[in-house]
Amino acid sequence: MSDAVTALGGARAGGPLATVEEAPLRGMVTLRGDFARVGGAVREAVGLGMPKTRQILTMRDRAVAWMSPDELLLLMPYGKAGAVVTLLEGALEGAHFLAVDVSDARACFRISGSGSGAREVLARLCPADLSPSVFGPGEVRRTRLAQVPAAFWMDDSGDVTLICFRSVARYAFDLLANAAEGDAVGFFPAS
Amino acid sequence: MLILTCPYCGIQCDETELAPGGEAHLKREGPGSSDAAFEAYLFERANPMGVHFERWRHANGCGKWFLAVRSTTTLEVYGTYKAQTPEPPAEIVAAIRARVPGWGGRA
Ligand SMILES: [Zn+2]
Hints:
- The complex is a heterodimer.
- The N and C termini of chain A lie far apart (44 Å).
- Chain A has a 6-stranded antiparallel β-sheet, covered by helices on one side. In chain A, strands 4-5-6-3-7 form a 5-stranded antiparallel β-sheet, with helices on one face.
- Chain A is 23% helix and 32% strand.
- Chain A is globular, with a radius of gyration of 17 Å.
- Chain A has 2 domains: 12-24 and 105-180, Probable tRNA modification gtpase trme, domain 1 (Gyrase A, domain 2, 2-Layer Sandwich), CATH 3.30.1360; 26-103, Heterotetrameric sarcosine oxidase (Alpha-Beta Plaits, 2-Layer Sandwich), CATH 3.30.70.1520.
- In chain A, a hairpin with a 2-residue loop joins strand 5 and strand 6.
- Chain A is an alpha+beta fold.
- In chain A, helix 1 (35-46) packs across helix 2.
- Chain B is α+β, with helices and mostly antiparallel strands.
- Chain B has helices spanning 35-43, 90-99, and strands spanning 3-5, 12-14, 19-23, 51-57, 65-71, 77-82.
- In chain B, the strands form 2 sheets. Chain B has a 4-stranded antiparallel β-sheet with strand order 3-4-5-6. In chain B, strands 1-2 form a two-stranded antiparallel ribbon.
- Classes of the chains: A alpha+beta, B alpha+beta.
- The A-B interface holds A 53-54, 67-69, 71, 127-129, 141-144, 149 and B 8-14, 16-17, 59-64.
- The complex binds zinc ion.
- Residues 6, 8-9, 11, 58, 61-62, 64 of chain B line the site of zinc ion.
Protein backbone atom coordinates (compact mmCIF):
# COMPACT_ATOMS: atom_id res chain seq x y z
CA MET A 1 0.00 0.00 0.00
CA SER A 2 1.48 3.32 -1.05
CA ASP A 3 1.62 6.24 1.34
CA ALA A 4 -1.01 8.77 0.28
CA VAL A 5 0.15 12.38 0.48
CA THR A 6 -1.43 15.72 -0.33
CA ALA A 7 -0.37 17.64 -3.43
CA LEU A 8 1.71 20.25 -1.62
CA GLY A 9 2.69 18.52 1.62
CA GLY A 10 0.58 20.79 3.79
CA ALA A 11 1.90 24.05 2.36
CA ARG A 12 1.14 27.16 4.40
CA ALA A 13 1.38 30.88 3.72
CA GLY A 14 0.06 33.92 5.46
CA GLY A 15 -0.41 37.61 5.06
CA PRO A 16 -2.18 40.48 6.81
CA LEU A 17 -5.48 39.37 5.39
CA ALA A 18 -5.56 35.62 5.98
CA THR A 19 -3.67 32.38 6.41
CA VAL A 20 -3.81 29.84 3.58
CA GLU A 21 -3.11 26.26 4.42
CA GLU A 22 -3.34 23.04 2.46
CA ALA A 23 -5.75 20.78 4.32
CA PRO A 24 -4.96 17.15 5.17
CA LEU A 25 -6.30 14.42 2.90
CA ARG A 26 -10.05 14.10 2.93
CA GLY A 27 -12.37 11.49 1.48
CA MET A 28 -14.56 12.81 -1.33
CA VAL A 29 -17.18 10.94 -3.31
CA THR A 30 -19.06 12.38 -6.27
CA LEU A 31 -22.61 11.08 -6.58
CA ARG A 32 -24.69 11.78 -9.66
CA GLY A 33 -28.25 10.61 -10.08
CA ASP A 34 -31.91 11.54 -9.78
CA PHE A 35 -32.28 13.48 -6.52
CA ALA A 36 -35.74 11.99 -6.08
CA ARG A 37 -34.09 8.58 -5.74
CA VAL A 38 -30.74 9.03 -4.01
CA GLY A 39 -31.86 10.47 -0.65
CA GLY A 40 -32.07 7.13 1.16
CA ALA A 41 -28.68 6.02 -0.13
CA VAL A 42 -27.04 9.28 0.97
CA ARG A 43 -28.46 8.87 4.47
CA GLU A 44 -27.25 5.29 4.61
CA ALA A 45 -23.78 6.22 3.34
CA VAL A 46 -22.97 9.35 5.36
CA GLY A 47 -25.90 9.80 7.75
CA LEU A 48 -27.03 13.13 6.32
CA GLY A 49 -30.13 14.31 4.49
CA MET A 50 -30.35 15.90 1.07
CA PRO A 51 -29.06 19.49 0.81
CA LYS A 52 -31.17 22.19 -0.79
CA THR A 53 -29.89 24.06 -3.84
CA ARG A 54 -26.31 25.31 -3.18
CA GLN A 55 -26.45 24.09 0.42
CA ILE A 56 -23.85 22.09 2.33
CA LEU A 57 -24.92 19.97 5.31
CA THR A 58 -22.24 19.09 7.84
CA MET A 59 -22.14 16.66 10.74
CA ARG A 60 -18.79 16.13 12.48
CA ASP A 61 -16.39 14.72 9.86
CA ARG A 62 -19.10 14.15 7.21
CA ALA A 63 -20.73 16.54 4.80
CA VAL A 64 -22.98 16.59 1.74
CA ALA A 65 -22.69 19.47 -0.71
CA TRP A 66 -25.07 20.39 -3.55
CA MET A 67 -23.03 20.68 -6.73
CA SER A 68 -25.70 20.72 -9.46
CA PRO A 69 -29.31 19.55 -9.86
CA ASP A 70 -28.05 15.98 -10.27
CA GLU A 71 -24.70 15.98 -8.48
CA LEU A 72 -23.66 15.82 -4.83
CA LEU A 73 -20.24 15.86 -3.24
CA LEU A 74 -19.98 13.66 -0.16
CA LEU A 75 -17.14 14.33 2.30
CA MET A 76 -15.80 11.88 4.84
CA PRO A 77 -12.49 10.84 6.44
CA TYR A 78 -9.93 9.87 3.80
CA GLY A 79 -9.95 6.15 4.44
CA LYS A 80 -13.74 5.88 4.38
CA ALA A 81 -14.40 6.90 0.76
CA GLY A 82 -14.21 3.36 -0.63
CA ALA A 83 -16.71 2.09 1.93
CA VAL A 84 -19.09 4.97 1.14
CA VAL A 85 -18.98 4.10 -2.59
CA THR A 86 -19.75 0.47 -1.75
CA LEU A 87 -22.71 1.52 0.40
CA LEU A 88 -24.04 3.81 -2.34
CA GLU A 89 -23.70 1.12 -4.98
CA GLY A 90 -25.60 -1.33 -2.82
CA ALA A 91 -28.39 1.10 -1.95
CA LEU A 92 -28.84 2.32 -5.53
CA GLU A 93 -28.61 -0.99 -7.31
CA GLY A 94 -30.81 -0.94 -10.42
CA ALA A 95 -31.01 2.87 -10.53
CA HIS A 96 -29.19 5.06 -13.05
CA PHE A 97 -26.43 6.69 -11.01
CA LEU A 98 -22.71 7.28 -10.71
CA ALA A 99 -20.67 7.12 -7.48
CA VAL A 100 -16.92 7.69 -7.71
CA ASP A 101 -14.17 8.12 -5.14
CA VAL A 102 -12.53 11.40 -6.20
CA SER A 103 -10.43 11.91 -3.04
CA ASP A 104 -7.12 11.72 -4.93
CA ALA A 105 -8.34 14.01 -7.73
CA ARG A 106 -8.75 17.02 -5.47
CA ALA A 107 -6.73 19.52 -3.50
CA CYS A 108 -8.25 21.18 -0.46
CA PHE A 109 -7.28 24.46 1.22
CA ARG A 110 -8.29 26.29 4.36
CA ILE A 111 -8.40 30.08 4.30
CA SER A 112 -8.71 31.67 7.70
CA GLY A 113 -8.52 35.29 8.63
CA SER A 114 -9.91 37.65 11.19
CA GLY A 115 -13.07 39.54 10.28
CA SER A 116 -13.87 39.20 6.60
CA GLY A 117 -10.29 38.29 5.64
CA ALA A 118 -11.14 35.01 3.92
CA ARG A 119 -14.02 36.66 2.09
CA GLU A 120 -11.72 39.35 0.79
CA VAL A 121 -9.08 36.85 -0.38
CA LEU A 122 -11.72 35.08 -2.49
CA ALA A 123 -13.17 38.32 -3.81
CA ARG A 124 -9.78 39.14 -5.30
CA LEU A 125 -9.79 35.93 -7.34
CA CYS A 126 -13.40 35.02 -8.16
CA PRO A 127 -16.20 36.68 -10.13
CA ALA A 128 -18.65 35.51 -7.43
CA ASP A 129 -20.65 38.01 -5.38
CA LEU A 130 -19.17 37.52 -1.91
CA SER A 131 -21.10 40.14 0.01
CA PRO A 132 -22.50 38.67 3.26
CA SER A 133 -26.06 39.24 2.02
CA VAL A 134 -25.44 36.84 -0.89
CA PHE A 135 -22.87 34.31 0.34
CA GLY A 136 -22.58 33.01 3.87
CA PRO A 137 -22.04 29.91 6.01
CA GLY A 138 -23.86 26.78 4.88
CA GLU A 139 -23.68 27.60 1.19
CA VAL A 140 -21.35 26.01 -1.34
CA ARG A 141 -20.29 28.21 -4.23
CA ARG A 142 -18.80 26.79 -7.40
CA THR A 143 -17.00 29.39 -9.43
CA ARG A 144 -13.78 30.34 -11.13
CA LEU A 145 -10.58 30.96 -9.15
CA ALA A 146 -8.65 33.10 -11.66
CA GLN A 147 -8.25 30.55 -14.46
CA VAL A 148 -9.40 27.30 -12.84
CA PRO A 149 -12.73 25.98 -11.51
CA ALA A 150 -13.07 25.77 -7.74
CA ALA A 151 -15.72 25.33 -5.06
CA PHE A 152 -15.76 26.70 -1.55
CA TRP A 153 -17.90 27.02 1.54
CA MET A 154 -17.68 29.00 4.74
CA ASP A 155 -18.11 27.81 8.30
CA ASP A 156 -19.69 29.82 11.09
CA SER A 157 -16.36 31.39 12.07
CA GLY A 158 -15.95 32.90 8.60
CA ASP A 159 -13.13 30.55 7.62
CA VAL A 160 -13.36 29.05 4.15
CA THR A 161 -12.64 25.58 2.79
CA LEU A 162 -11.82 25.54 -0.92
CA ILE A 163 -11.45 22.57 -3.23
CA CYS A 164 -10.04 22.41 -6.75
CA PHE A 165 -8.49 19.82 -9.02
CA ARG A 166 -5.27 18.36 -7.66
CA SER A 167 -3.48 19.00 -10.96
CA VAL A 168 -3.77 22.75 -10.33
CA ALA A 169 -3.04 22.66 -6.59
CA ARG A 170 0.18 24.69 -6.82
CA TYR A 171 -1.44 27.30 -9.03
CA ALA A 172 -4.44 27.64 -6.70
CA PHE A 173 -2.26 27.81 -3.58
CA ASP A 174 -0.01 30.50 -5.08
CA LEU A 175 -3.05 32.54 -6.09
CA LEU A 176 -4.54 32.33 -2.61
CA ALA A 177 -1.22 33.06 -0.89
CA ASN A 178 -0.65 36.07 -3.12
CA ALA A 179 -4.17 37.40 -2.50
CA ALA A 180 -3.68 36.99 1.27
CA GLU A 181 -0.54 39.12 1.20
CA GLY A 182 -2.07 42.51 0.51
CA ASP A 183 -3.58 44.71 3.19
CA ALA A 184 -7.30 44.58 3.83
CA VAL A 185 -9.49 46.79 1.69
CA GLY A 186 -12.27 46.45 4.23
CA PHE A 187 -15.07 46.49 1.70
CA PHE A 188 -17.05 43.77 3.45
CA PRO A 189 -18.38 44.27 6.96
CA ALA A 190 -16.86 41.71 9.38
CA SER A 191 -18.88 38.51 9.16
CA MET B 1 -20.15 42.74 -18.86
CA LEU B 2 -23.02 40.32 -19.24
CA ILE B 3 -24.67 38.89 -16.12
CA LEU B 4 -27.03 35.91 -16.58
CA THR B 5 -28.98 34.10 -13.86
CA CYS B 6 -28.47 30.34 -14.11
CA PRO B 7 -31.94 28.74 -13.92
CA TYR B 8 -30.49 25.59 -12.30
CA CYS B 9 -28.47 26.92 -9.38
CA GLY B 10 -29.94 30.43 -9.22
CA ILE B 11 -26.59 32.19 -9.24
CA GLN B 12 -26.21 35.53 -11.01
CA CYS B 13 -23.27 34.55 -13.18
CA ASP B 14 -20.68 36.91 -14.38
CA GLU B 15 -20.00 36.23 -18.08
CA THR B 16 -16.54 34.87 -17.26
CA GLU B 17 -18.13 32.04 -15.28
CA LEU B 18 -20.00 30.91 -18.41
CA ALA B 19 -19.18 29.31 -21.73
CA PRO B 20 -21.11 30.46 -24.83
CA GLY B 21 -22.88 27.87 -26.98
CA GLY B 22 -24.23 29.81 -29.94
CA GLU B 23 -27.79 30.20 -31.14
CA ALA B 24 -30.61 28.49 -29.22
CA HIS B 25 -33.63 26.51 -30.43
CA LEU B 26 -31.93 25.04 -33.49
CA LYS B 27 -33.79 22.09 -34.94
CA ARG B 28 -31.50 19.18 -35.60
CA GLU B 29 -31.53 17.83 -39.14
CA GLY B 30 -30.34 14.24 -39.21
CA PRO B 31 -30.41 11.25 -41.56
CA GLY B 32 -33.23 11.57 -44.11
CA SER B 33 -33.10 15.36 -44.28
CA SER B 34 -32.21 17.13 -47.51
CA ASP B 35 -28.67 18.36 -48.09
CA ALA B 36 -29.90 21.94 -48.02
CA ALA B 37 -31.65 21.47 -44.65
CA PHE B 38 -28.59 19.78 -43.17
CA GLU B 39 -26.32 22.53 -44.44
CA ALA B 40 -28.62 25.15 -42.93
CA TYR B 41 -28.62 23.29 -39.61
CA LEU B 42 -24.84 23.20 -39.58
CA PHE B 43 -24.00 26.66 -40.84
CA GLU B 44 -26.89 29.12 -41.08
CA ARG B 45 -27.30 31.23 -37.98
CA ALA B 46 -29.42 34.21 -37.08
CA ASN B 47 -27.33 37.32 -36.54
CA PRO B 48 -29.85 39.92 -35.43
CA MET B 49 -29.19 43.42 -34.26
CA GLY B 50 -31.39 43.23 -31.18
CA VAL B 51 -33.20 40.30 -29.56
CA HIS B 52 -31.18 37.09 -29.72
CA PHE B 53 -31.76 33.60 -28.27
CA GLU B 54 -28.58 31.92 -27.06
CA ARG B 55 -27.25 28.82 -25.35
CA TRP B 56 -24.90 29.24 -22.41
CA ARG B 57 -23.26 26.76 -20.07
CA HIS B 58 -22.56 27.46 -16.42
CA ALA B 59 -19.10 26.00 -17.02
CA ASN B 60 -17.37 27.25 -13.87
CA GLY B 61 -20.38 26.42 -11.75
CA CYS B 62 -23.12 23.80 -11.79
CA GLY B 63 -22.11 22.77 -15.30
CA LYS B 64 -25.60 22.95 -16.81
CA TRP B 65 -26.63 24.30 -20.20
CA PHE B 66 -29.34 26.95 -20.19
CA LEU B 67 -30.93 29.39 -22.61
CA ALA B 68 -30.86 33.17 -22.47
CA VAL B 69 -32.45 35.99 -24.43
CA ARG B 70 -30.62 39.27 -24.66
CA SER B 71 -30.18 42.26 -26.90
CA THR B 72 -27.03 42.11 -28.98
CA THR B 73 -26.90 45.89 -29.07
CA THR B 74 -27.59 46.91 -25.46
CA LEU B 75 -26.78 43.63 -23.62
CA GLU B 76 -30.17 43.95 -21.88
CA VAL B 77 -31.21 40.48 -20.69
CA TYR B 78 -34.89 39.58 -21.11
CA GLY B 79 -34.65 36.30 -19.26
CA THR B 80 -33.04 32.88 -18.87
CA TYR B 81 -34.67 29.45 -18.83
CA LYS B 82 -33.77 25.78 -18.76
CA ALA B 83 -32.32 24.05 -21.78
CA GLN B 84 -35.10 21.44 -21.81
CA THR B 85 -37.53 24.04 -23.19
CA PRO B 86 -38.32 23.52 -26.89
CA GLU B 87 -39.87 26.97 -27.43
CA PRO B 88 -39.38 30.30 -25.65
CA PRO B 89 -41.77 30.31 -22.64
CA ALA B 90 -44.71 32.75 -22.69
CA GLU B 91 -43.32 34.87 -19.84
CA ILE B 92 -40.04 35.32 -21.72
CA VAL B 93 -41.88 36.39 -24.88
CA ALA B 94 -43.99 38.80 -22.78
CA ALA B 95 -40.82 40.24 -21.21
CA ILE B 96 -39.34 40.86 -24.66
CA ARG B 97 -42.55 42.44 -26.01
CA ALA B 98 -42.75 44.72 -23.00
CA ARG B 99 -39.30 46.10 -23.73
CA VAL B 100 -39.22 45.83 -27.53
CA PRO B 101 -42.76 46.70 -28.76
CA GLY B 102 -41.97 46.18 -32.46
CA TRP B 103 -40.25 42.85 -32.00
CA GLY B 104 -41.02 40.58 -34.94
CA GLY B 105 -40.52 37.25 -33.17
CA ARG B 106 -37.68 34.79 -33.32
CA ALA B 107 -35.87 34.88 -36.67
ZN1 LIG C 1 -25.67 27.11 -12.53
